[in-house]
Amino acid sequence: MELALHQSTWWGLVGDVEGMKYAKRVGFDSYDLFPGRSLSPKDGPFYRAAFRESGLRPSALTLVGETLGDFNEPIRQFALGWIKGQLEVAYDIGCEVMVLALGSYYWEGKELDPELQRSWVVEGVRALGDHAKSVGMHIAIEMNPYEFYMVRSLDSMLEFLKEVNHPNVGANADVSHLHLANDAPARLKELKGKIRHVHLSDNDGKNHGDLPPGRGTAPLREYLRVLNGLGYDGTVTVELEFSPDPDRIKDWVKESYDVTSRMMRELGLRKS
Q1: CB neighbours (10 Å) of residue 199?
Q2: Could you give all domains of the chain from N- to C-terminal order, each with its CATH number?
Q3: In whole angstroms, what is the distance from residue 166 CA to residue 194 CA?
Q4: Using H for helix, E for strand and C for coil, what is the string for the chain?
């Protein structure tokens, strides 16, 4: 398995190229893009050069596609076109996967029929799957354990993927979110053949934290063990956010690499 760092780690604290070079220096193999803004075709040459300079491999682009389920049809169509454009830029840069976070049910699901809103999102994601297939990429749906979020647990992930029913649309197994949703490592087996990408961080089991691995209560070693048993050999991305001491974010990155790489070596998932 390759070990990647997620760009959201820096949140403007460190420049793009500097952050990528530091990730390579501590030992990461690849890098997930999440610039916090819309990418344009002009970003392709910049990021391709940055990857060459840093020696990292581009693994994925993370995107928030909440407006795929917007009440207004023109906004849904705009969102679909925008996400397709972002996927094309990601492909141009060299990414293999787009990690797509969806949205929540409007008004707690009490006014707009949740099934209707869900059908809009399913239709949109299926169209994105077609677009991804045309360029040889995959969409990985990210779950978020919030009360009204559409894909908020392993059960809702399985249901959503069944509805979309597209070979180029699978799951992002975010083990930190699975822990928050009380989905035990063994349940990952239900996603066999559907996992396209993995996010890894820690938390206390109650609050969304994206802490360095080892600082919380998530059974990360067990999640990795099950992933290996499923034959997953893709990218595992360390996703860090909201450091209480931004001036020491590089220390967080180094600590996260050391702890995660050690776990993976001990499990036979990584040689170095």
Answers
A1: 26
A2: 2-266 (3.20.20.150)
A3: 10
A4: CEEEEEHHHCCCCCCHHHHHHHHHHHCCCEEEECCCCCCCCCHHHHHHHHHHHHCCEEEEEEEECHHHHCCCHHHHHHHHHHHHHHHHHHHHHCCCEEEEECCECHHHHCCCCHHHHHHHHHHHHHHHHHHHHHHCCEEEEECCCCCCECCCCHHHHHHHHHHHCCCCEEEEEEHHHHHHCCCCHHHHHHHCCCEEEEEECECCCCCCCCECCCCCCCCHHHHHHHHHHCCCCCEEEECCCCCCCHHHHHHHHHHHHHHHHHHHHHCCCCCC
Examine the pLDDT at 208 and tell me if it is beyond 90. Answer: no
pLDDT digits (tens, 9 = 90+) for 41-82: 999 999 999 999 999 999 999 999 999 999 999 999 999 999
Residue 129 to residue 188: CA distance in whole angstroms = 22
**Residue owning tokens 């001036």:** 247
Q: Look up the pTM and report it.
A: 0.95
By the 8 A CB rule, do 148 and 117 touch? no
The two tokens of residue 120 are 């809009």
Interacting residues of 178 by C-beta distance below 8 A, sequence separation 6+: 143, 154, 185, 187, 188, 223
pLDDT for 48 equals 97
> Cα–Cα distance between 47 and 70 in angstroms, integer?
31
Neighbours of 153 (CB within 10 A): 19
Measured distance CA(18)–CA(260) in Å, rounded: 22
